[in-house]
Amino acid sequence: MSAIQKIKGFADLFPEDSRCFTRMEAQARATFGRYGFGELRTPVLERTELFAKGIGEETDVVGKEMYTFTDRGERSLTLRPEATAGVLRAAIEAGGIEPGRATRLYTFGPMFRYERPQKGRMRQFHQINAELLGSPEPAADVEVILMLQDFLTSLGISELCFELNSLGCRECRPDYRSALTAYFEALDHEKLCEDCRRRMHTNPLRVLDCKVPACKALVKDAPEIGQHTCESCRGHFAAVLALVDKAGLKYTLNPRLVRGLDYYQRTTFEVTSGAIGAQTAVAGGGRYDGLVQLLGGPDAPGVGFACGMERLAMLMDRPEAERPDFFLAVTDTREGSGAVEAAVLLAHKLRLRGLSGECDYQPGSMKSRLRHAGRIKARKCYILGAEEHDAGQVTVKDMEDGEQLKLDIAAFD
Ligand code: HAM
Q1: Rounded to whole angstroms, how far apart are CA atoms 29 and 128?
Q2: Where are any strands of DSSP class E within 301-378?
């Protein structure tokens, strides 16, 4: 019978890879904790309307990429394609958003998008996500950006590019959208891809982000958002940039940075790397004033980001496995001698003392066992042979200096 295989675009993480993820989570907890953020865990399943409303019906994520199904109670449910909408839903539901007081939450976990899998693009991927709710000040945008930078630095990842833009607000964005639509209409818009011919009317900002070469060529001279933002948005963005400058962060301004989710207002940012293939964005985020209210909460602004853990893992040094303190090999092969039981109990005692290690009671030569102990870099090799077992002892070999001595097993009680 052929073995059942995993689903396309989904991955298994064995220890060599999962160690990277554990390191990222530990660094995120440490860094975000220093910024006053607390951990929130939300369900992977939410009502479909949360994402349709929050992320926007016109986005690729909602239109083409969601894992949506009807459950046995006839409810339409969706595996979360991102974390922000769920975090806001949870905070609103718990009454945790007080206007005028900042709420700082982070969350980790798997997200699901039905995209075409390729290097750095999975159908189940993992995000580290942070949201600062309740603060409209440019200072909040900057704190979040600096927290992201600190986190990436703590992973030893350099050579990253921070790109910043402001997308304007509900007041000034319609003006920009009209200018864009007018620009595309005046062009030979039949040359745009099928999606963009629709988007130029429904969501013209998304045309700026299209990866189809013909569309890329046509947007080259499109009007820039900066010429259309209102005074208040310009002032907000100027204050963000001034503080980011003072903090010494290097960034580039990218007036074409529109992001793939509809909830953004004002500041948006992305962190990219040229070292991981075609999918260059390792993190993205921005301000989403109005989203809390749209999801039924109070009039509280918000700003946040998410990092893609698979993409960060590609840029990190692989952490080594922790060295085990011991490797305990049973070499007493006499039937019914009780050596295996004695070894299991001895290993248990060692673990209760805080030591880590493997107990090996399978048959095999001493040479191959010592080779294995060397491979896993065990600090000490414990050997329970017939002679030792009869004497109630165990041989302990220090794998660093080769020194060997016999100890009474009773001494470990
Ligand atoms: P996003 O840009 O859609 O933003 O995703 C954030 C990051 O998740 C990306 O930069 C990328 O590293 C990773 N990512 C996205 N899709 C995939 C995929 N299919 N495979 C592997 N990695 C992927 C958001 O999700 C927003 N919720 C971020 C945010 C939080 N904005 C404000 N708060």
Answers
A1: 10
A2: 302-308, 326-330, 357-360
Q: What is the pLDDT of residue 326?
A: 97
pLDDT number for residue 352: 96
- As a whole number of angstroms, the distance between CA 292 and CA 87 comes to 10
**Amino acid 161: pLDDT:** 96
- Note the pLDDT of residue 99: 73
State if pTM tops 0.90: yes
Strand partners, 141: none
157 contacts 312 by C-beta, under 8 angstroms: yes
CB of 281 closer than 6 angstroms to any ligand 1 atom: yes
Compute the Cα dihedral for 140, 146, 151, 152 and give only its sign: positive
pLDDT in tens, 378-393: 999 999 999 999 999 9
Ligand 1 atom with minimal separation from the 122 CA: 20
The model's confidence at residue 63, banded by pLDDT at 50, 70 and 90, is: very high
| Rounded-to-integer distance, Cα 385 and Cα 135, Å | 67
Residue 403's pLDDT is: 96
Residue type, 334: R
Q: Going by CA atoms, what residue is nearest to atom 16 of ligand 1?
A: 121
Distance 82 CA to ligand 1 centre (A): 7
Q: Using one digit for the tens of pLDDT, what is the confidence trace for 302-324?
A: 999 999 999 999 999 988 999 99
Which DSSP string corresponds to 169-225? -TTTHHHHHHHHHHHHHHS-GGGS-HHHHHHHHH-HHHHTT---HHHHHHTTTPPPG
Atom of ligand 1 nearest to the CA of 260: 3
The rounded Å distance from CA 339 to ligand 1 centre is 54
- Nearest 5°: CA angle at 61, between 59 and 64? 95
* Distance (Å, whole) CA 203 – CA 284: 20
Nearest CA to 205 among 231, 172, 230, 238?
Answer: 172
Ligand 1 contact, 195 CB (< 6 A):
no
Q: Is the pLDDT of residue 187 over 90?
A: no
Ligand 1 mean position, distance from CA 124 (Å): 12
Cβ–Cβ under 8 Å, residues 91 and 302 = no
Residue 381 three-state SS: strand
Q: Alpha helix locations (H) across 35-125?
A: 48-55, 60-64, 84-93
- For the cut 90, the answer to whether the pLDDT of residue 333 exceeds it is no
Pairing of strands 45-47, 67-70: unpaired
State how far the Cα of 267 lies from the Cα of 253, in Å rounded to an integer: 11
